Fold this sequence. Notes:
The protein is of the alpha/beta class. The protein has 2 domains: 6-23 and 31-419, Alkaline Phosphatase, subunit A (3-Layer(aba) Sandwich); 430-501, Arylsulfatase, C-terminal domain. The chain has 12 helices and 17 strands. The protein has helices spanning 12-24, 60-67, 82-91, 132-138, 226-240, 263-266, 290-314, 344-347, 362-365, 392-399, 416-419, 488-501, and strands at 6-7, 35-41, 70-72, 75-76, 142-148, 167-171, 184-187, 190-193, 246-251, 321-327, 370-372, 381-383, 387-388, 430-434, 440-445, 448-452, 469-472. The strands form 3 sheets. It has an 11-stranded mixed sheet with strand order 1-12-3-11-10-2-9-5-6-7-8, with helices on both faces. Strand 7 and strand 8 (190-193) form a beta hairpin. Helix 5 runs parallel beside helix 7 (290-314). The longest helix has 25 residues, at 290-314. It is globular, with a radius of gyration of 22 Å.
Amino acid sequence: MHRSIARLGICALVGACLAVDSAAEPSPSATRKPNIVFILADDLGYGDLGCFGQKKIRTPHLDRLAAEGMRLTRHYAGNAVCAPSRCVLMTGKHPGHAFIRNNRQMGNRPVPRIGKPNVEGQHPIPDETVTLAEAFRQLGYATGGFGKWGLGGPGSAGEPLRQGFDRWFGYNCQGVAHNYYPTYLWDNDQTIPLDNPPFSAHDTFKPNEDPTRADSYRRFQGADYSADRIAAQARAFVRAHKDRPFFLYWPTTVPHVALQVPDDSLREYAGLWDDPPYAGGKGYIPHFRPKAAYAAMITRMDREIGRLLELVRELGLDKHTVVVFSSDNGPLHGTHQGLAGTDCAFFHSAGGLRDGKGTLYEGGIRVPAIVRWKGRIPPGTASERVGGFEDWMPTLLELAGAPGAAPKDIDGISLAPTLLGQTQPARPFLYREFPAYGGQQSVHLGDWKGIRRNLMPRGKNAAVDRRVELYNLATDRAETADLSARHSDIVARIETIMRRQHTPSPDFPFPALD
């Protein structure tokens, strides 16, 4: 059910002061299309930001962004893992209609210009796919992407330069992006070398190395931290296009493992907590202070976001720029807890939601979301309207003054009225499916949520479980009490939506649903 916009509890005083300031400012020029900056974190949990309840990790710039704009407190990533979530964001189609429905590495294709054959990149979206970048380029926007792609390897139909981006800098492949000190990054369609030694993000100690010594961990570092290089290129793009509308997509790799961060950031958190070394054994490279590293990675990301926002202000573009921040899925949890030395339970990264990455429970797909447009979006506000990544294409195009530019076959519903402080009907439903981690489906129907799991059971004699669990998120956001036995009528409505919203995919089969 849609609720009226509520004032932020966190940063309320700052937000109130900003509301007074913004009321005295003139509205943005009606003749200039707004710039769009979309920042996407990687595996950042609902509770990893101060403005969403984090107590241990400092995120002052994102907290200020929330105080100057609106938090979306029931916003959902496109899916439970990277590539299919990003496909929903880029195309406006939910997982039952989207082309990419799971992470999948490309076939045996050589990577050019890196000195030896290799396999890089994920399963590509087709040429005919209309992406956010293509839609904005058609409107005359300069389009730039900086960070991690994951929707088509080099030379494929899905690579960024063939999907609407004038400029691309960063990683093409999600696997390569596991290392923050890679030997190269992609600069448009060329690779550029970085000043880093070659080592795998999944490396571990050699028999002659002592994991109790801090200096044993030094060889898992380099000189060129990729997240810094990517952030610098994003700022350069803003400077280069300050006099025309631009669409800046910044899918940072932070805080996805491996745990790696320069020492100056690590020192901000070193010694604050009991933080024994991670010597390997649960994937990815070792780290001497893993808790400090996770916190420092997020705070350094926040610092780089602050630098970009300050540049936007210096260039006089504050009131001409829509800024969106979110995450591609939830944090590590359960069997993944401790992967690469992470401790998301210690940081309360899921914010009290159930489970995390890889599941369609709330912790896996409900993500932090912040939107700021000075002078247009009421500052210091929050909305509980249910929305998802498919909604950004129609939303951003409407804010750009071109609501008719979105393809007609998308599933997204514009959030623009909500963002601008207007009333808006509740979303009829929000559908998710994921043919992995046992096979899952979920439907949000107002405050109700239905979820199926074990639709692709493992084992020779395992049976498909089509039972729908039902939760009332208004009173049970942690999904602890299954109410399906008491509300068969709601379960029946959810089952109908599940049946109708899935379309078979030859590339990503889901036998229980196909």
